Amino acid sequence: MDWGMENRLSQLIQADGRCFFLPIDHGYFQGPTSCLEKPGETIKPLLPYCDALFVTRGVLRAAVNPVGSKPIILRVSGGTSVLGGDLANESLTTSVEEILRLNAAAVGISIFVGSDYERESLMNLAEIVNRCEDFGIPVMAVTAVGKELEKRDARYLALASRIAAELGARVVKTYWCKDFDKVTCGCPVPVVMAGGPKCETEKEVMDFVYDGMQNGAVGLNLGRNVWQNPYPTAMMQALHGIIHGGLDAAEAWELFNDLKGKKTKKEGKAARKR
Q: In whole angstroms, what is the distance from residue 234 CA to residue 258 CA?
């Protein structure tokens, strides 16, 4: 591995071999997402607990302070919306010159294995790998699944993740599932877990994150289950405890409730003063 590639990957995957990415790229296909209408304000209290931001170039320029920024994983695929016919019909949206100009540590691109646009999305991945390898820029492939939620099983995710690695992705972002070890064991590059749809309870999030880390994931790329939570900073800290602090799901749940309680008391005192 050349120096530039290794240096960029080391910005993402920390010295303990783990990582916690904060995605705020949801608006590229669904517009002003709830709790992410003003992304700069949303992420401000969360930044101390993440290792990198996954973001589009537009939001990066408009809402992320370039001074002292966390490493950036730049979203470089898109071209569809929730109003269109098929979210899988994506193209590359960003040039290598732009990636370098924005000083991204890595780029991220979705692939849609099993969709009508499987070949197009896989060739998008191959093309951006070809371009980025020349400049030592790692590519993170995102094994996207549209409305076909039944595809989120170990057999499908293992297939999609392995194909992404075979085409040159340096990191694969995929969903947690039952028998997650079957996904990670078949993927020769680091695997990070996606958050997926918003979970019903915080404990549900802690459980799947801990299980995934025990079964081969190197980290987490999770957004909605953090910044749509009523206590996002507490949620972020609790998950950080699993990723980097050696906490199990029960300990993280306890930490979340402790932090949530302190915030509630603090807010109550502030209200009484007013």
A: 9
Q: Is 173 part of the annotated catalytic residue set?
A: yes
Tell me which of 173, 178, 182, 273 is the catalytic residue.
173
Is-contact 143 172, C-beta < 8 A?
yes
Closest to 170 measured CA to CA, from 194, 195, 137, 196: 137
* Cβ-contact 180, 211 below 8 angstroms: yes
Place of tokens 């994931």: 217
Residue from 140, 135, 177, 171 nearest 158 by CA? 177
In this predicted model, what pLDDT tens digit does every residue of 11-48 receive, in sequence order? 999 999 999 999 999 999 999 999 999 999 999 999 99
Contact 176/211 with Cβ under 8 angstroms? yes
Selected from 3.40.250.10, 3.20.20.70, 3.10.50.40, 3.40.50.300, the CATH number assigned to the domain covering 3-223 reads 3.20.20.70
Q: Which residue has the tokens 């085409």?
A: 167
